[in-house]
Design a protein that fits this description.
There is one protein chain. By secondary structure, this protein is of the alpha+beta class. Strands 1, 2, 3, 4, 5 and 6 form a six-stranded mixed β-sheet that branches. Strands 7, 8, 9, 11 and 12 form a five-stranded mixed β-sheet that branches. Helix 4 packs parallel to helix 6. The longest helix is centred in the last third of the chain and has 27 residues. About 2% of the residues have low confidence.
Amino acid sequence: MLFLLSLWQLFSELLLAPAPSPPLVLQPARLPFVPREYYVAAVADARAKPEPVAQLLATAQATAPELVELQGGTLPALRGFVSRTVPRNPALRPATVRVQELRVRETAGPGGTIDGQIIVAFSFDWQREGETVPLTQYRGGARYRRLPSQRAAVEPALRQALVGALTYFDTWMTQQAPHNVALAHRIQVRFLDDARAAEGDTLFYQPQRPLVWADFSGPRRSAGNFAAAVFPSFAYTGKPQVVNGTLHLDLTLQVFVVRSSSWTATQTDYSLNHEQRHFDLVKLVGERFKRKVQPDSLTVADYNSIIQLQYLRSYWEMNRVQEQYEAETQHGTNEAAQQRWNQRIDAELRAFGVRS
């Protein structure tokens, strides 16, 4: 008899217990825009402590809120909402929406009403060349007031808060895409030669303006029986600019000698030609450097370090070829070797279009 009484008591408690609140069912929304620069490729949950989205009051006098989740769970519900709300064009940039915070909290309002606060915090990034590129963050939300019988008012308020986050991101992308390097998705490279003949003590390489003895203005140094010495080098300058999603690299190649570091002891046409060939060799290294810095060898994410590495490699190449030239010509004293180097250098200059 006691057993039957316990069962009846348990059954009565189950009958009298309030039914759990139904989940919130997110409905698709109508957006005030159509994405032109991106599509939402993924929605990820980055919350520190995932939990049911909403804490709702059954009445204004309720002492504790009820935990209410989105139908199907937070992440599946948001993914479904985004897929049914945001047009998808895979030809655009693939953006990821990361949910940092999403919650609805209700408190007792005046006159038996219930006040609600919605907090939405999203971060946005995209995948470019296998790298996650952070873009922007959004934090916002909404407030509402409802009667206890108007629980259906919660979902539209939450939906509009989500639309606000997506609208912010679309506006940011539209404004930033034309010029923000984080959104560039291709590269164009254009090399120019420094058009100046000289600036101060620096003489720039000009095919139509070879070295003359007046360019060797430095004091003679202790260098054995050398007739002259010139020390050419090269550098590049440039500033990236993003135009309509394309990273434009306009680079200027500078091949130069410093007059005050160049000196002469014996002025003959033969020795001047030997020094000119040092200058020509650096020009050739610079031309090869140009061809190493092309879009197919660069990435938008790491173009600068790639160019710097190629520059260092070309700089080492310049030193090696200068040493080889000096060794084979015996500093210009081996006339047969000098003639071979003259022919080789002229042929390469013509191949690069430096000389006709």
